UniProtKB/TrEMBL annotation:
One Pfam family from the record: DNA-SBD_ScoMcrA
Keywords of this entry: Endonuclease, Hydrolase, Nuclease
GO MF terms, alphabetically ordered: endonuclease activity
InterPro entries for the chain: DNA-SBD_ScoMcrA, HNH_nuc, PT_DNA_restrict
Domain ScoMcrA-like DNA sulfur-binding stretches: 4-148
The keyword Lipid metabolism belongs to this UniProt entry's keyword annotation: no
Membrane-crossing residue ranges in chain numbering: none
Source organism, top-level taxon: Bacteria
Domain HNH nuclease: 183-236
Protein name as catalogued: HNH endonuclease
């Protein structure tokens, strides 16, 4: 069985580029439990809170019930759900899942393959992460799912993945040059022996969701603002002014200086001769990543 192909082929609801990583997040959680506790049934009521946390932290801005992936992942040949009566999944409703004692587990053949192939777990994790999230979030997602990322990466070094869409090696170089090696939000431009340090080339529309490796889809951001941009704490409005999520709370002077004081500031654009940001990518980020509502400027 081509388990990697089956994982890559997970059916996800999509419309107009909307993110729906609900099934991948459940699968990552199940793999984390498998890695540490072995192959056993996962009662819905036992993982409901953890799955809900993953969906809130790494899912799309719209609210999603953990019952949705718990039920619908059964359609992809990777996940099996039974109830206390021995029946299949009662549906995605939370009340039905709780009352029926619904429990899910990895498909037995899939679990056996993971147990006998020491590299398959690492490969599956990499496929799920690369296909659904930017690299800046990978370690945090694995930690939240209970996955040992270091062990997975170590195993994957001897088990190359099948050829898939490749990232452009020139993206970072081109974006940093366009933005003159400084953060588009705060202006940080640190160098170590004439090499930019702490500056990343960020995709506005995530590469995992067909974001192109072009300057028109890139921002130079310091490492902290890159992470906050990918988490939806920071965003951009139609005039390319920095927005800050109202959900972000920072009481210290450093949090105000580094984050809250950016509200309403125009981003630093690329130097002349380079493509400006494509507004369609900015709109995608605002709709699919930024955690609405946005904070209002004082006096607005």
């Amino acid at each position: 069985m081509d388990w990697l192909g089956r994982v890559e082929g997970i059916r996800r609801w999509s419309r107009g580029g909307e993110r729906a990583p609900h099934k991948p997040l459940l699968l990552l959680l199940a793999l984390g439990r498998l890695q540490h506790d072995g192959d056993g049934p996962l009662r819905f009521t036992d993982i409901e809170a953890d799955l809900g946390h993953l969906l809130r932290e790494f899912g799309p801005p719209r609210a999603t019930s953990p019952g949705y992936p718990f039920h619908h992942l059964t359609n992809d040949g990777l996940w099996v759900v039974t109830t206390e009566n021995g029946e299949g999944s009662p549906g995605p409703g939370l009340t039905d899942l709780r009352r029926s004692g619904a429990a899910g587990r990895l498909d037995p053949e899939f679990a056996r393959s993971l147990a006998t192939d020491p590299h398959l777990l690492a490969q599956v994790v990499r496929v799920l992460l690369d296909a659904n999230f930017p690299p800046s979030l990978h370690a945090e997602i694995c930690a939240a799912a209970g996955l040992d990322l270091e062990a997975a990466e170590l195993a994957s070094t001897t088990a190359p993945l099948p050829a898939r869409r490749a990232r452009s090696a020139e993206f970072r170089r081109d974006v940093l040059l366009a933005y003159e090696y400084r953060c588009s939000f705060c202006g940080y431009d640190g160098l170590l022996r004439n090499t930019a340090v702490g500056i990343d080339a960020a995709h506005v529309r995530w590469w995992a969701f067909d974001g192109p490796d072009t300057v028109a889809n890139g921002l130079a951001l310091c490492s902290l603002h890159h992470k906050l941009f990918d988490k939806g704490v920071l965003g951009l409005d139609e005039q390319h002014r920095v927005t800050v999520s109202a959900h972000f709370i920072g009481r210290s002077p450093s949090a105000r200086t580094i984050v809250l004081d950016l509200l309403g500031h125009p981003m630093l654009g690329p130097q002349p001769g380079f493509d400006p940001l494509d507004p369609t990518h900015v709109t995608w980020h605002r709709q699919q990543v930024f955690q609405l509502p946005a904070r209002q400027e004082a006096g607005a």
